[in-house]
Amino acid sequence: TTIACIFDLDGVLVDTAVYHYQAWKKLANSLGFDFSHEQNEQLKGVNRMRSLDKILDWGGVQKNNEEKEELATLKNTWYVDMISKMSAAEVLPGSLELLQALHAKGIKIALGSASKNSGLILERTNLTHFFDAIVDGNAVTTSKPDPEVFVKGAELLKAAAENCIVFEDASAGVEAAIAAKMTVVGVGEEKNLPGADIWVKDLSAVSVQQLIDLVVQKNK
Ligand code: G6P
Ligand code: MG
């Protein structure tokens, strides 16, 4: 079996989930409210405007479209300030090693991220050259849990969905991968990522052979 791998970015390959959280929290606080860690889980994998809508909803704050654009831009300015200072040291444990091992075996690799900042992050962390295809927030019209981002990734890799493995830290992303009929490695806890095929703390716990076995097993 020839597998293909589609990686989420924030929280899977790089430690940017914490920057998103800090920037959204700062925005909420500036509007006079706060939100919890549990609520933050619901923002993972969700695109910028949908995230803002959820946060405003939690705060019971209403804004018109023009104001929402301004707030989203403000949050992104803070976020871009943080990620502009990133380095390869912020690649999460095991991610570089897994990308290298997949690359060495000629296994195709795509990015499947909701972020419009993926280009900057991949560049800052020296990961760009690993990707045969990049599908990010600039390339899709619908947000995870819609499967569009992963379906496009598989198309670009010329891979059948049943041979694709998605790596996700977000519940919306796991849902999207399931809807795309792909195998899912949940990066995080089972309780936060229902429906994944396996769960790992980070990618250091994953070998290429294990991924191939997982797909073979699933397609039986
Ligand atoms: C990822 C993150 C989300 C973020 C989204 C959009 O999916 O998990 O928290 O909202 O990307 O990111 P962007 O960089 O375009 O604001
Ligand atoms: Mg993520």
TrEMBL record:
Belongs to the HAD-like hydrolase superfamily. CbbY/CbbZ/Gph/YieH family. Its cofactor is Mg(2+). It comes from Pedobacter westerhofensis. It comes from the Bacteria. This is Beta-phosphoglucomutase. CDD domains: HAD_BPGM (cd02598). GO terms for molecular function: beta-phosphoglucomutase activity; magnesium ion binding; sugar-phosphatase activity. Gene3D superfamilies: HAD superfamily/HAD-like, Putative phosphatase, domain 2. Keywords: Magnesium, Metal-binding. GO terms for biological process: carbohydrate metabolic process. InterPro entries: B-phosphoglucomutase_hydrolase (IPR010976), Beta-PGM (IPR010972), HAD-like_sf (IPR036412), HAD-like_SPP (IPR051806), HAD-SF_hydro_IA (IPR006439), HAD_2 (IPR041492), HAD_sf (IPR023214), PGP-like_dom2 (IPR023198). Mg(2+) binds at residues 8, 10, 168-169. The record marks 113, 144 as: Important for catalytic activity and assists the phosphoryl transfer reaction to Asp8 by balancing charge and orienting the reacting groups. The active site is at 8 (nucleophile), 10 (proton donor/acceptor). The keyword Magnesium applies. Substrate binds at residues 8-10, 24, 43-48, 51, 75, 113-117, 144. Binds 2 magnesium ions per subunit. It holds the Pfam family HAD_2.
